[in-house]
Design brief:
Blueprint (H helix, E strand, L loop, with lengths): L1 E7 L5 H15 L6 E7 L11 H11 L14 H4 L2 E4 L2 H8 L9 E4 L21 H23 L8
Parallel strand pairs: 1-2, 1-3, 3-4
Helix pairs in contact: 1-5, 2-5
Bound molecules: 4-nitrophenyl phosphate (4NP).
The site of 4-nitrophenyl phosphate has 11 residues, from loops.
Length: 162
């Protein structure tokens, strides 16, 4: 079993969606015994809240997904509990690394590096201050990135950036 933690800033827009889309691909491919997933935010702004209503309505509309995750904050112990930590952007990545313990187990990756359609991009853009179109773009991007990431995990072909 490999465990994956998706991380963004607030844990209400990008990372709970990444978690749900990744698990949807896992289930579709009958891989539930091989992979588990969770998500967290580097900030504490929205602890205990469901995903943003715009993220949830887009997830239902585009992928028939009902998001039930409640926001929690990323913590140092997550480095011991997970095999992979997948950051949505470089600021998340830096904030994650600040909490890295000596005996860390998890490898830290950037989600956008698994985009099959574009190279040399680092960020899943934060849609929080955007419009419906921004939420839909992020949804399609995360659907592609999580699918491709699962493919690379199955190929044992993960490139470590740290
Ligand atoms: P997320 O988006 O990191 O994708 O969950 C955000 C959610 C909330 C805020 C910023 C980004 N905020 O400033 O409250």
């Amino acid at each position: 079993m490999q465990s994956i933690l998706f991380v963004c800033l607030g844990n209400i827009c990008r990372s709970p969606l990444a978690e749900a889309l990744f698990l949807q691909h896992v289930i579709e491919q009958n891989l539930s015994e091989k992979f588990s997933a969770d998500s967290a935010g580097t900030a504490a702004y929205h602890l205990g809240e469901l995903a943003d209503t715009r993220t949830r309505s887009t997830a239902l509309k585009l992928s028939n997904l009902n998001l039930t995750h409640k926001a929690r904050q990323f913590e140092s112990n997550d480095f011991l509990a997970f095999d992979f930590i997948v950051a949505m952007d470089k600021i998340n990545y830096q904030n994650i690394m600040k909490l890295r313990p000596e005996n860390a187990r998890a490898k830290v990756l950037l989600m956008r590096h698994y985009d099959s359609t574009i190279k040399n991009e680092d960020a899943i853009p934060d849609p929080y201050y955007g419009n419906e179109n921004d939420f839909e773009k992020v949804h399609h991007m995360l659907n592609d990135c999580t699918k491709n990431f699962l493919k690379e995990l199955m190929r044992n072909n993960i490139r470590i950036i740290s």
